[in-house]
Amino acid sequence: MSDKPSILVTGGAGYLGSTLVPMLLAEGHKVTVIDSFMFQQSSLNHVCADPNLEIVRGDTRDTDIVAPLLAKNDIVIPLAALVGAPLCARDAIGAETINRDAVQMLVDKMSRDQWMLTPITNSGYGVGEKGKYCTEETPLRPISLYGRTKVEAEQAALSRENAISFRLATVFGMSPRMRLDLLVNDFVYRAVNDRTLVLFEAHFKRNYIHVRDVARVFLHGIANFETMKSEPYNVGLSDANLSKAELCAVIRQHLPNFVALEAPIGEDPDKRDYIVSNEKVEATGFKPAHSLDDGIRELIKGYVMLNDSRYSNV
């Protein structure tokens, strides 16, 4: 493995990929992105001038496209996925074939010398035990199809020696390929634009992490691969194991006019209710650089630009 290994990023134009790819290029890596561009995003415009970037339009399930790209790269970061329980419920076949089968195909075709660093979701923990932190040894009990396919993808990745899995907390923050449906991003958007929010299952707790810190943990994993390989790592903010109601209280410190009302309606399709320990990844020397407050300030600023009024007559 060279000092600056070449990297294949599937789904590299997505929410995480469009943040990670510029950071990999800035480190001097050659990066190949394969993406279907299913959301019509042009989120890598700002790095197209970099000669170390190659962009391929294609489906990560297509062996004929993926195999030659895989053969010329040292590291694989499979980001391509249908992310989130609602999207997976809407396209169950896509969820299984993209989230799990495409990763299995990569595993089957990779040489022993190639490295894989893969993200999954810590919603794999399902419903946790009250007051008890989920560690990497906690049994995975995913409830949604999304959670199950990502847990199965982790099993495929860790079946080979040269792999790291990052079990990501709920990600937040601005990105070139923005997502408004992620919990913090959604709540702040509603606080900015509606100033009110109806909360269901307000006491359910989960962990959070900034999208740039997720990108940073991949860089950290590459730099420390030999000592971190063959293991899963929780990645989240250790001071942000918060319920939905507690999250709203933090947002209210930035937007005092925000009102969150609790109502006995609806449910979380992932049934996420757990607290997470991030001690294992922190013991490797990784520390998040962006707090929840940093992210909220950034989102408020970003939402000056973003206003999804396509379905409004005013």
Task: Summarize the structure in words.
- The protein has 314 residues and is an alpha/beta fold.
- It has a domain at 7-172 and 208-237 and 277-288: Rossmann fold (3-Layer(aba) Sandwich), CATH 3.40.50.
- 35% of the residues lie in helices and 19% in strands.
- It contains eleven helices and 14 strands.
- The chain has helices at 17-26, 63-71, 85-90, 92-109, 145-158, 183-193, 211-223, 225-228, 244-254, 279-282, 292-302; strands at 7-10, 31-35, 53-57, 75-78, 115-121, 133-134, 163-168, 170-172, 196-199, 205-210, 231-235, 241-243, 259-262, 275-276.
- It has a seven-stranded parallel sheet with strand order 3-2-1-4-5-7-11, sandwiched between helices. The protein has a three-stranded mixed sheet with strand order 8-10-12.
- Strand 1 (7-10), helix 1 and strand 2 (31-35) form a beta-alpha-beta unit.
- Helix 1 (17-26) packs across helix 7 and helix 4 (92-109) packs parallel to helix 5.
- The chain starts with 6 loop residues before the first strand and ends in a 12-residue tail after the last helix.
| CATH-defined fold name of the domain at 7-172 and 208-237 and 277-288 | Rossmann fold
Distance between the termini: 56 Å
- Give me the strand/helix succession: EHEEHEHHEEHEEHEEHHEEHEEHH
Q: Which strand order does the major sheet show?
A: 3-2-1-4-5-7-11
Strand composition percent: 15-25%
Task: Provide the gyration radius in Å.
Answer: 19 Å
Share of helix, binned? 25-40%
The tally of beta strands, per DSSP, is: 14
- What general outline do the C-alpha atoms trace? globular
State the low-pLDDT regions, or none: none
Major sheet attributes? 7 strands, parallel
Structural class category: alpha/beta
Second rung of CATH, namely the architecture of the domain at 7-172 and 208-237 and 277-288: 3-Layer(aba) Sandwich
